[in-house]
């Protein structure tokens, strides 16, 4: 009854006061610099609401430190703003920086313990990661994966012959590729039930992954009676839990039925399920883990692929001179009488550099998923307490002038091209944009391949021109662009035109038969 009297907000405020009081009373060692906080609330009002990755990089410049810190409601945050800091801590000291902070919303309320990205650094996580690499990155899988991505790119340019909904077509192409790679399912529109439920789940994750719900700061709030006002997070958790379960079970069960009937299209899922049907012995828990892995690949790959394709189309429209060079790189190989395939990757180096620059220009996740320190540490004379939340600023790292030159604010693929015209593979923005150390994204090879073939196919078939915002205002390379302040960060809405540059027959002949 006491909670019914004072309310959850007062209880939370009291808890904040106690946390800060004990923090003040405890003798503190020198932590990395950062803005001075307020009593009780710390740096709560310093947390940026827009494009926070830019603000945190400015803090590094202000305090002359690669690593800056802030404290919010008793939790210490360490923000890594340079390639060196990320390399030194998350890679060289990965033994103590490979764990994940606990999210009450995601783990306790939504019950999405099957999400690999949020798993703790333990045996269960290692099993899931091993399965992902074994099933998605094998030579056999690579052949099938590339075939699906290629076919999705051909379906995209076929639809672009008549469709004016370019945003929708890019979204469908990205989902088409990852859904067909994972499950062998080819969606024709967004009415497909698996696409609908995945979109709803990603919307919820975009909201809860920011950690802005009070229950993530004070986990005891999850136990409060549901009839109390102000506990909307409980309803969101319930809805997210049900939808997320559908993502895991729905596609898997459908493909399992197809394998039993002998009608399944080759995919990662059908290959695994066929092995079971053929009597291959599985380790205890392997089937459940693989079902999780498949859902992870589809759920994570859909939103991120959409985001990168948006960035590519926008960058090409804003930088026609780069687009022309990338098209020439392709035209020299294709000779105007065919469309690209994966064998052309090394034959069109400027296009490869352009795709690399897409991942650098604006990373899909400006902040890599947070890490947590599992023991006290010292870096550059600064104390990093055990339990600190480590925030890798991928956007800041990919603006590191020591790596990428003084023009990091510009879109310039030339930074990845050697003087002899070959690609500098030692400088990979793809690797830098997809997590670090032991927690690097296992799907980054699929992401790179998918984006490359989509980019190559679009540029071979079309000129991407006339970028405008939703009000019809012309966009240029100098137009300020405000990206969404979310885990997966999208460009502001825009429109372009696709002008066909090769005979229509070449496009139509390349579209796979349904």
UniProtKB/TrEMBL annotation:
<comment type="similarity">
    <text>Belongs to the cytochrome P450 family.</text>
</comment>
<feature type="transmembrane region" description="Helical">
    <location>
        <begin position="6"/>
        <end position="24"/>
    </location>
</feature>
<feature type="binding site" description="axial binding residue">
    <location>
        <position position="441"/>
    </location>
    <ligand>
        <name>heme</name>
    </ligand>
</feature>
<keyword id="KW-0479">Metal-binding</keyword>
<keyword id="KW-0503">Monooxygenase</keyword>
<keyword id="KW-0812">Transmembrane</keyword>
<dbReference type="GO" id="GO:0016705">
    <property type="term" value="F:oxidoreductase activity, acting on paired donors, with incorporation or reduction of molecular oxygen"/>
</dbReference>
<dbReference type="InterPro" id="IPR017972">
    <property type="entry name" value="Cyt_P450_CS"/>
</dbReference>
<dbReference type="InterPro" id="IPR001128">
    <property type="entry name" value="Cyt_P450"/>
</dbReference>
<comment type="pathway">
    <text>Secondary metabolite biosynthesis.</text>
</comment>
<dbReference type="GO" id="GO:0005506">
    <property type="term" value="F:iron ion binding"/>
</dbReference>
<keyword id="KW-0560">Oxidoreductase</keyword>
<dbReference type="InterPro" id="IPR050364">
    <property type="entry name" value="Cytochrome_P450_fung"/>
</dbReference>
<keyword id="KW-0408">Iron</keyword>
<keyword id="KW-0472">Membrane</keyword>
<dbReference type="InterPro" id="IPR036396">
    <property type="entry name" value="Cyt_P450_sf"/>
</dbReference>
<dbReference type="GO" id="GO:0004497">
    <property type="term" value="F:monooxygenase activity"/>
</dbReference>
<protein>
    <submittedName>
        <fullName>Cytochrome P450</fullName>
    </submittedName>
</protein>
<keyword id="KW-1133">Transmembrane helix</keyword>
<dbReference type="Pfam" id="PF00067">
    <property type="entry name" value="p450"/>
</dbReference>
<dbReference type="GO" id="GO:0020037">
    <property type="term" value="F:heme binding"/>
</dbReference>
<keyword id="KW-0349">Heme</keyword>
<dbReference type="InterPro" id="IPR002401">
    <property type="entry name" value="Cyt_P450_E_grp-I"/>
</dbReference>
């Amino acid at each position: 009854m006491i909670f019914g009297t004072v309310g959850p907000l007062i209880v939370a405020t009291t808890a904040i006061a106690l946390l800060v009081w004990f923090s003040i009373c405890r003798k503190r060692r020198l932590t990395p610099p950062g803005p001075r906080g307020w009593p009780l609330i710390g740096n709560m009002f310093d947390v940026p609401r827009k494009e926070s990755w830019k603000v945190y990089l400015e803090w590094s410049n202000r305090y002359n430190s690669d690593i800056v810190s802030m404290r919010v409601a008793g939790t210490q945050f360490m923000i890594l703003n340079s390639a060196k800091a990320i390399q030194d801590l998350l890679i060289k000291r990965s033994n103590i920086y490979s764990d994940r902070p606990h999210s009450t919303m995601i783990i306790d309320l939504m019950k999405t313990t099957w999400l690999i990205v949020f798993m703790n650094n333990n045996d269960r996580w290692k099993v899931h990661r091993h399965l992902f690499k074994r099933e998605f990155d094998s030579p056999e899988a690579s052949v099938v994966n590339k075939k699906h991505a290629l076919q999705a790119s051909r379906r995209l340019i076929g639809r672009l012959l008549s469709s004016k909904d370019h945003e929708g077509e890019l979204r469908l192409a990205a989902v088409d590729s990852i859904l067909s790679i994972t499950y062998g399912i080819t969606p024709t529109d967004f009415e497909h039930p698996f696409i609908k439920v995945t979109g709803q789940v990603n919307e919820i994750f975009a909201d809860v992954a920011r950690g802005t719900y009070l229950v993530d700061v004070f986990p005891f709030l999850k136990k409060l009676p549901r009839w109390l006002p102000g506990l909307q997070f409980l309803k969101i958790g319930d809805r997210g839990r049900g939808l997320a379960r559908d993502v895991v079970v729905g596609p898997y069960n459908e493909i399992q039925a197809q394998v039993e009937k002998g009608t399944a299209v080759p995919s990662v899922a059908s290959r695994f399920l066929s092995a079971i049907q053929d009597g291959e012995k599985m380790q205890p828990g392997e089937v459940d883990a693989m079902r999780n892995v498949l859902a992870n690949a589809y759920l994570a790959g859909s939103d991120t692929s959409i985001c990168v394709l948006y960035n590519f189309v926008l960058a090409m429209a804003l930088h026609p001179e780069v687009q022309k060079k990338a098209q020439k790189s392709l035209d020299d190989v294709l000779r105007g009488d065919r469309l690209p395939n994966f064998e052309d990757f090394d034959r069109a180096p400027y296009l490869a550099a352009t795709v690399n620059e897409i991942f650098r220009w604006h990373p899909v996740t400006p902040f890599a998923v947070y890490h947590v320190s599992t023991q006290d540490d010292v870096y550059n004379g600064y104390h990093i307490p055990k339990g600190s939340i480590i925030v890798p600023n991928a956007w800041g790292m990919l603006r590191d002038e020591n790596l990428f030159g003084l023009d990091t604010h510009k879109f310039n693929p030339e930074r990845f091209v050697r003087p002899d015209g070959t690609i500098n593979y030692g400088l990979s923005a793809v690797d830098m944009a997809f997590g670090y150390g032991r927690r690097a994204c296992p799907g980054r090879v699929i992401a790179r391949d998918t984006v490359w073939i989509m980019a190559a196919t679009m540029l071979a078939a079309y000129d991407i021109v006339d970028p405008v915002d939703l009000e019809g205002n012309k966009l240029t390379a100098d137009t300020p662009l405000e990206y969404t302040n979310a885990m997966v960060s999208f460009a502001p809405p825009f429109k372009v035109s696709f002008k066909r540059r090769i005979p229509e027959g070449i496009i139509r002949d390349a579209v796979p038969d349904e």
